[in-house]
Amino acid sequence: MGWLFLKVLFVGVTFLGCLYPLVDFCCSGDTRGQKPNFVIILADDMGWGDLGANWAETKDTANLDEMAAEGMRFVDFHAAASTCSPSRASLLTGRLGLRNGVTHNFAVTSVGGLPLNETTLAEVLRQAGYVTGMIGKWHLGHHGSYHPNFRGFDYYFGIPYSHDMGCTDTPGYNHPPCPACPRGDGDGPSRTHERDCYTDVALPLYENLNIVKQPVNLSSLAQKYAEKATQFIQHASASGRPFLLYVALAHMHVPLSGTRLSADRRGRRPYGAALREMDRLVGQIKDKVDRTARENTFLWFTGDNGPWAQKCELAGSVGPFTGSWQTHQGGSAAKQTTWEGGHRVPALAYWPGTVPINVTSTALLRYETRTTLKCWDSGLENHGPRLQRLETSRREASSATCLGREFPDASYSSDRSHTDLPVGNPTC
Ligand SMILES: [Ca+2]
Fold first, then answer.
1. Quick check: is 139 catalytic?
2. What does each C-alpha distance from 190 to 195, 209, 216 come to in angstroms?
3. What is the pTM of this model?
4. How far apart are CA 308 and CA 105, in angstroms?
5. Is the dihedral of CA 354, 275, 56, 46 positive or negative?
6. Given this model, what pLDDT does residue 258 score?
7. Residue range 76-86, pLDDT digits in tens
């Protein structure tokens, strides 16, 4: 099995570059019948320095640090974009925003989503016989056919976009703080642009196509995600079929959960407490993998983009990638920028017996499409209509293997409903 990991490493890895070689593995003739499970855990707005294994100042990620010691840590890994929707679109399609069409964040009022002619990893794997599940933040369109259940996922539980894009009765920590959902006959506050808060629509929680709670209870969301993730792994394993589970966490995006955020000994309250809560959630999922499908599951942890620096003490750490030139101009060097802190993210691979233990890779890992095409060519059935598009992509492939920062338009995406760029935050 060691050859498989070497293949992963050398073929070229990004969010999907890491996975598609494994898809190739699962559908190649000589390994048929040994399809691995995939568990992808994606943190939101987590800084490179928020992982203790990366940055010694951080002491809040015991489970992730253990995962790093038991697997492989990538210290020069880059997200495909520095904001949520473009990064997630690339994660699921293996294509940069310039090609998949998602170059900006979707809003609450967006009627579209990830273009329907894009093929997702979940669709590929489902056609290869996988059970597919997604838990957490989608943010790739929330109306009609853009819903996760129509983009390859058999099961979905989560919120349609960021949890600061709707009011809740448990607002949590934000900067500046937001009020709870308005009550009564409509005399309450409407969306207050100046306060960067949304109150027109209460944040919904979906299970498949149904809203099961609105507004969502942010205080219990992490535990709900842990329950649903472990249940999915249990049921999928019992089915005898390989599975894909994509868990897109609410952490570390603001608002930070308002409960159990006890004082942090290093003064990072409540950020440090929320980081520990996320770490426990990841630990619960990893424990379930270990107890259920340890030998045949590839577990991947990473982030969608760097920390949201404008949130001051409620933002994570970029570690050493402070962008001193940029910050001295009064701007940010993190999320929403093409500076390194915006897209250089933690990345861990874990698969006992296959992924080497306690290894740190300094390889600069990049966007890759050619391996995707190789897999498509290797015999997954019923892809005829899509192959024509992929043939076009093949001609682009040599130029597509690039770092996001070499294509600034692809990795730059400003969500001006939140802030103008580049800016610092004079209130920090
Ligand atoms: Ca994000």
1. yes
2. 11, 27, 19
3. 0.82
4. 14
5. positive
6. 66
7. 999 999 999 99
Segments making up each domain of the chain, as ranges: 37-177+206-379
Class of the domain covering 37-177+206-379? alpha beta
Query: Exactly one of 84, 167, 178, 181 is catalytic; which is it?
Result: 84
- The answer to whether 322 and 341 are in contact (CB under 8 A) is yes
- Tokens describing residue 72: 């492989």
Q: Which segments of the chain have a pLDDT < 70?
A: 1-33, 184-195, 258-268, 366-428
Q: Calculate how far, in angstroms, residue 382's C-alpha sits from the geometric centre of ligand 1.
A: 34
CA distance 66 to 58: 14
Residue 345 CA, distance from chain mean position: 11
Rounded to the nearest angstrom, the distance between the alpha carbon of 306 and the centre of ligand 1 is 7
Active site (annotated) includes residue 312? no
List Cα–Cα distances, 132 to 25, 100, 156, 233, 239, in angstroms.
Answer: 18, 22, 9, 10, 12
Q: How far is the CA of 251 from the centre of ligand 1 (A)?
A: 9
Amino acid occupying residue 163:
H
Q: Which residue of the set 18, 26, 78, 139 is catalytic?
A: 139
Extract the tokens encoding 70. Answer: 């038991």
